[in-house]
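Pipeline run #58 for the internal structure catalog. This entry was flagged by the ingest filter as a single-chain record with no existing model, so it goes straight to prediction. Upstream metadata was stripped on purpose; only the residue string is passed forward. Reviewer on rotation: M.T. Logging verbosity set to normal.
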Amino acid sequence: MNLYTSAGGLFETHVTWEDIEEDMQRELDTAASFGPNKTAKNIGDGRGFMSRIVLIDPDWQQKDKDLPEKFVVKILTQLTLNQFMAEMSKDTDFDSSYINEEYMAALEYQQKRLHNTEVTVYNHIMSLPEGKIPRVKIYYMRKFSESNPVKGYIIMEYKDNIKPVHIYQNVSIEAIKEVLRVKAVLEAKSLKFTEEEKEVFTKKPFSEIFAQFFNGNTAENFVKGFAQFGDGKLADRAERLEKISPDILDFVWADQLADELDFYIFNIKETTVTNE
């Protein structure tokens, strides 16, 4: 069993209705059960490639307390990425032949590692005082392990009317300050991680993780697909991207970027002081 082949659970994953129902009954301490009109909706398409984001309406039966009318399950899988690659291959000259079992198995290892790290971080965030940082309620999280190789997921509160902010959009200074305040809290909280917990974090995210996505001809294929996107309207930009790709995809350099910038800024300060 693995994360890159279809299974019989929710949206072809290994996670079933029974898994989610049992988890919620246990965590919410309720005897209520999911009803015949329960629904699951995939709300994650176009918002990432490493998981299925599933909105659950459980249709609670025999409610014995106040229970969430809806909630979200984030299920780790490669099926979303595989679907995206297949669609690219149909619409463009994207060559997906390099995506073989060896590639997918290597990617799965990193996915599981990242998911377990995410669970570790959330466990620390959940211990923060209420209101310290904005966060959704987490009902249950399941890590991957030797005894649980294919069911990694997070069940969380559903928030509607959420507006995504994309990297290309401008934001206000006040919004940036809010993000920086949260980042400061998280940085301080990271000092509480145990040595064992720190071991699950990668120290070289670009060369250890992102390099998995861009081995072989992946980058070349993405640029080719980008050039053909929108009837070729982006062809000139794709050509420019192709020229600078070797620098962008220098993952070892990217992992050292913080040290490089620190050295650069330090030298600027030293030069300024000397000139004064």
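catalog note: The CA atoms of residues 51 and 76 lie 4 Å apart.
catalog note: The chain has a mean pLDDT of 87.
status: ready for reviewer M.T.
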